[in-house]
Amino acid sequence: MSVRNLTPAEVQAALDSGAIHLIDVREVYEYERVHVPGSVNLPLSTFHPAELPQDAKEIIFMCAGGVRSLRAIEAAQAFGLTADSHLAPGINGWIAEGLPVEA
């Protein structure tokens, strides 16, 4: 499995440029409590790679701490997609960096 571990600053820059889809694979209740503005919630518990946006933008996965996002990458690659990037420290690392969140 090919994986790119991205920092919160790298993901923020990509979001700002409009070049990515940030897919949050945490459960709905986690997402509703706090999430990154502009992210899309596709919980890993019901995740299927066919649900991912199909356009030229890069897919970047995220979760709470980087474990579920790796599982989403694995599922996407097994499905034949080239998705290989995730927010390595998850939303916990995002918050620790003081980056914006919504509730």
UniProtKB/TrEMBL annotation:
Protein name as annotated: Rhodanese domain protein
Lineage of the species this protein comes from: Bacteria, Pseudomonadati, Pseudomonadota, Alphaproteobacteria, Caulobacterales
Taxonomic superkingdom: Bacteria
Start and end residues of each Rhodanese domain: 16-103
MF-aspect GO terms: thiosulfate-cyanide sulfurtransferase activity
Sections of the chain in a coiled coil: none
Family matches, as InterPro entries: Rhodanese-like_dom, Rhodanese-like_dom_sf
